[in-house]
Amino acid sequence: MKKNKISILSTLLLLLLASCMPMYSIAYMTSSKMNKLELGMSKEQVTQVLGTDYKIAEKRLEDNNEIEVLSYRDRVEKDEVYYFVFKNKKLEKWYQELIPIERIEIQ
């Protein structure tokens, strides 16, 4: 009976901790993943490589072209954000930005 109570308490504690996690997207941005990316890939192909833990940072129409920007925040280097720009659902470019130290959330 005591083990059952400990098990229940452990499960509740894990659920509580999971609900307190940050709301922004965090991923592992490894060089092996980044090396698999190629210009012209679809959004689905990119998310198969990097995962679906992204935010849509921007979406707009520009000269009848649909522009969508996905952002991934690096789980290891918390001051790095990677942006992936899709033009008409094809990867056009990607780049990295460093977050100024005063904007990094303390966890």
Write up this protein.
The protein is of the alpha+beta class. The chain has one domain: Beta-lactamase Inhibitory Protein, Chain:B, domain 1 (2-Layer Sandwich). 28% of the residues lie in helices and 35% in strands. The chain has 3 helices and 5 strands. It has helices at residues 2-19, 31-34, 43-50; strands at 26-27, 55-62, 65-74, 80-87, 90-98. Strands 1, 2, 3, 4 and 5 form a 5-stranded mixed sheet that branches. Strand 2 and strand 3 (65-74) form a beta hairpin. The model is unreliable at 15-25 (pLDDT under 50).
User: What is the H/E string?
Assistant: HEHHEEEE
Give the amount of beta strand, in percent. Answer: 25-35%
Q: Quick one: biggest sheet? A: 5 strands, mixed
* Count of individual beta strands: 5
Q: How many structural domains?
A: 1
Protein name: DUF3192 domain-containing protein
Pfam family, one: DUF3192
InterPro entries: DUF3192
